[in-house]
Amino acid sequence: MHAGSAYTESGQASWYGPRHDGLRTTSGERFDSSKMTAAHASLPLGSYVRVTDTSTGHSIVVRVNDREPPHGVRCIDLSHAAAARLGFAARGVADVTLAQISAEEAQGAGEELAEAPEDAAAADPARPIAPHGRRHRHRAHR
Question: CA–CA distance from 4 to each of 43, 74, 99, 107 (Å)?
Answer without folding.
Answer: 12, 24, 12, 17
